[in-house]
Amino acid sequence: MNLKFFPSRQIALYVARLFFTRSFAVLGGLVVILMTLDLLGTSSQILAHPGNGDAELWRYVGLRVPQLITRFLPFAVLLGTLITLVGLNQHSEIITMKAAGISAHQIIAPLIIAGLLVAIVNFGFNERVTTRASAALSAWEAVDYGAIPPATRVHSNVWVQNGDDLILARRVSGGGGQVRLDGVTLYDRTGGTLHRIVDGRSGLWRGGELVLGDATEFLVDTGQQRHADRISLGRAIRPNEFTLASADPDEQDFPQLRQSIVALENAGRPTASLRAGLWHKLSGPLSTVLMPLLAAVAAFGLARSGQLFVRAVIGMALGFAYFVADNFALAMGNFGAYPPFLAAWGPFLLFLLVGETVLIRTEE
Q: Looking at the structure, do residues 37 and 124 belong to the same domain, yes or no?
């Protein structure tokens, strides 16, 4: 029995080179097509802001492309692997390798190692580039592609619960004691019953109190409405509640997200969805390791039998099924139906077993 992981250095390098060139070629084509379609739908909104022009369009492209790369790299690896294995099968190279005593796992092994290298690059790219680009793009979108206020962070549509009351801030900027709210709405409730609605153009902390400027107060019980230059909401509402409530796994790197989770837990806020996002920062890039195993069904079987296309479709279906299961598990984790670890790692472990079972039962 041949127990070597790589039976031949030349074969391993040859297969890995085919894998890299085809995967990144597919990725480049996908990014160009998707970016073009995205820009066609967004350019009118960007150019609608006074003063925006070609420079702002290229700025949007620079911020959006990293998101597309991170999101579609595993899918490009799946297609690249299928193209590689189908080509090797059509040219009878798979048959030659098996005739030389090379097992199916040894044929796939170089692709798995190459997928691991892609996963490491993808993780580093997401941590250093994509998270920052996502945060910058969200801040830019929050001001309708205009000038971003000079603040540490800008967040949009932040909800905070203070007892029974609900507070919506359509834009949150700044940090520490210099947090500024724009477009604030307070829903004053008692026992789940709405009694008062307060709308303010802006919100600032003065003497430890949240003060709404240019505010309108509507009393639900009496139907009365009054306008005031300033309305104080008291000291119970703290600035960090708005900055902590806007933690987004897509906009924070691994260390920052861990710190946000700890801060939210200390504030007594739920963190299950953020923990699922934290784990998915690892399981997401590692999906490129799984793609060669799921696509391996396309590598074997006689090309002359007419079933090569069917095998390729089966491999693509397994890959698509993984992406669907991964998104479904994350959604269930966000709703609290799945534990964070299961939401992030469950689909990966499940399809790892499925791919290994299919490979063993059909080829080994």
A: yes
State the pLDDT at residue 1.
Answer: 45
Question: How far is residue 226 from each of residues 25, 39, 57, 202, 203, measured CA to CA in Å?
Answer: 62, 44, 43, 17, 18
> Which residue segment(s) compose the domain that 54 sits in?
9-144+272-363
Spatial distance between the Cα atoms of 240 and 172, rounded to a whole number of angstroms: 11
Q: Compute φ and ψ for 240, nearest 5 degrees.
A: -70, -15
Helix (H) or strand (E) holding 106: helix 104-125
pTM of this structure: 0.76
Q: Are residues 99 and 31 in the same domain?
A: yes
Pick the closest to residue 171 from 157, 160, 159 (CA basis): 157
Structure tokens at 326: 């991964």
User: Are 140 and 171 spatial neighbours (Cβ–Cβ below 8 Å)?
Assistant: no
Q: What is the pLDDT of residue 302?
A: 55
Instruction: Return the top range by mean pLDDT from 7-16, 29-38, 157-166, 183-192.
Output: 29-38
What phi and psi values does residue 239 have, to the nearest 5 degrees? -60, -40
Q: How many domains does the chain have?
A: 2
Mean pLDDT of the chain: 86
Are the C-beta atoms of residues 250 and 131 closer than 8 Å to each other? yes
